[in-house]
From TrEMBL, chain A:
It is a single-pass membrane protein. GO terms for cellular component: mitochondrial inner membrane. Exerts its effect at some terminal stage of cytochrome c oxidase synthesis, probably by being involved in the insertion of the copper B into subunit I. This is Cytochrome c oxidase assembly protein COX11, mitochondrial. It holds the Pfam family CtaG_Cox11. One of its GO terms (molecular function) is copper ion binding.
TrEMBL record, chain B:
It comes from the Eukaryota. This is Cytochrome c oxidase assembly protein COX19. One of its GO terms (biological process) is mitochondrial respiratory chain complex IV assembly. The gene is Cni-F45H11.5. It is found in: Cytoplasm. GO terms for cellular component: mitochondrial intermembrane space.
Length: 261, 81
């Protein structure tokens, strides 16, 4: 139902209501006066010539508005510098993932006595990897700003040399941001001869800025987990650019099982 | 497990500062390592108490060519000795 039809149907009801409350003559008079007043006001508004005092007051208002805008803009430019820095730190935008790690920082950092962080150690191997790999200590209590040493042990019980390569993981992620490793045994191939057992040290420190992070105020436990994978060295994968290595329908000679004597 | 979002710190697995420890195949520094483990066990896994023993371990490593020689200050042992 359109609006005009609605209004037409409602109008008799409205008039009924007004009849019940007031006399029709008075309502009519009131209506007439109101409409005339509205008309007069609108006409007055359009015909009004702005007087001199009004003009200067208006100009003053405009200048105040513009000046306040300018001041706010200048304030924004001043505030943008620390705001951008905080934004970059929080979101690790543009690769600024961690606090600067270098030897000068390690040399100058101060130990924070009031926080004691418990670093727990975990080790994993995939089921196909036949090394025995475990940490020598379950946990170690470290102050932020202090370098610490921890050990893992790996043993090769088989009769073949096995090459392993490890990766690590740290939880919780907020705390992992402050965990820096000076030297460890990850990401490089380590070969273990048959029956050999070797100690793998991890030399790390927790950044002293750990105590300044409000999200880490009640977090005192970090888990460091290493996983050792087997690296098959000497494995020659087929070269994708080799012209002989092309898919073909005809069975290639080396795929057919040879019956050799 | 890996969260993504606008305000989440991206934790990337990064290389260690001094690289990787060469493996101690012959077990030349095993004694120092065991001393360190015993110290940790005695002092209830407190790292602060056993820093001298850790320093001995690093010295052993450096003397036998299993670690690059570095000043103690750079390894965070400037205050000891």
């Amino acid at each position: 139902m359109s609006l005009s039809r609605l209004w037409n149907t409602a109008r008799p009801f409205c008039s009924v209501i007004t009849w019940t409350t007031k006399s029709p003559l008075s309502t009519l008079a009131v209506l007439q006066r109101k409409t005339s007043a509205v008309n007069v006001l609108s006409i007055r508004q359009f015909n009004k010539k702005p007087s001199r005092s009004d003009k200067s007051a208006d100009q003053k208002n405009y200048t105040y508005y513009v000046m306040s805008l300018v001041i706010v803009a200048i304030g924004c430019t001043f505030a943008a510098i620390p705001a951008y820095r905080i934004f970059c730190e929080q979101t690790s935008f543009g690769g600024l993932t961690q606090v600067a790690k270098d030897f000068d920082k390690i040399a100058n950092m101060k130990k924070c006595e009031d926080r004691l962080i418990r670093v727990q150690f975990n080790s994993d191997v995939p089921s196909s990897m036949r090394w025995e790999f475990k940490p020598q200590q379950h946990e170690i209590f470290v102050h932020p700003g202090e370098t610490a040493l921890a050990f893992y042990t790996a043993r090769n019980p088989t009769d073949k040399p096995i090459i392993g390569i490890s990766s690590y993981n740290l939880t919780p992620f907020q705390a992992a941001y402050y965990f820096n490793k000076i030297q460890c045994f990850c990401f490089e191939e380590q070969i273990l001869n048959p029956g050999e057992q070797v100690d793998l040290p991890v030399f790390f420190y927790i950044d002293p800025d750990y105590v300044n992070d409000p999200a880490l105020e009640y977090l005192d436990s970090i888990l460091l987990s290493y996983t050792f994978f087997e690296a098959k060295s000497g494995l020659k994968l087929p070269d994708p650019f080799d012209p002989k290595n092309r898919p073909s329908i005809a069975p290639s000679p080396d795929k057919v099982p040879e019956k050799s004597n | 497990m890996s969260q993504t979002g606008p305000f989440i710190r991206v934790t990337t697995v990064s290389a260690p500062l001094k690289g990787s420890f060469p493996l101690d195949h012959e077990g030349t520094c095993k004694l120092e390592m065991l001393n360190y483990m015993v110290c940790l066990h005695e002092k209830k896994q407190q790292n602060s108490e056993c820093r001298d023993v850790a320093k001995d371990y690093f010295e052993c490593r450096m003397n036998h060519g299993l670690m690059d020689k570095d000043e103690w200050q750079k390894l965070g042992y400037g205050d000891t000795k």
